Amino acid sequence: MTGGPGPSVPSGAALLDLVAVMDRLRSPGGCPWDAEQTHASLVPYLVEETYEAVEAIESGERDHMAEELGDVLLQVVFHARVAQEDEVAPFDIDDVAAGIAAKLRRRHPHVFGDVVADTPEAVAANWSVIKAAEKAAKGSGAAPPGPLHGIPAGMPPLAKAAAMVARLDRAGRGDLVDAAAAGSDPGSRLLAVVADVVRRRDDPDAVLRATLRSLSDAAG
What is the number of domains present in the chain? Predict the structure, then answer.
């Protein structure tokens, strides 16, 4: 990355600066508010900043998007800095970054290995197989986890329904979705709509937000 005339700045240098700023804020003599935060106290900010980033992305405003993604990045760096201080199982930003980098290499053998996957569908299928194998290995001989394993219990219902439909379809169990969506009750009808949107390769949350923005504009 370059900043115009003058010496070039290595890509990632600003990330190191952010880590240093967060360390200063959290250290003795830094910011009292930052110093007292915990993983639990920061959760509402992580959720709020994530929704704000989604809104910025959908707005298409590039400066706004960069700002909100920065706020999300801050939450990751903040949590990692808090984790450094744990007396039982500490980890830091390097552990977080190294873990996700290793996962990406492991789940992209068609890029970093000799596996052939030259279509998005082949990549997605291969990813699912690798992910299932990883989870089975973590189970230490236990039965392989089901296709819905890992979906957070507290996930918003619309996003959770979309995730369940996608997971079950990929696992060849779309029949379970169809059976649950066949009822006449409101929940079943909602699920049927979600399934239809997901199978059209759309995001139910995104399409509903777009409609609600139009409604809001119309209502003044």
Answer: 3
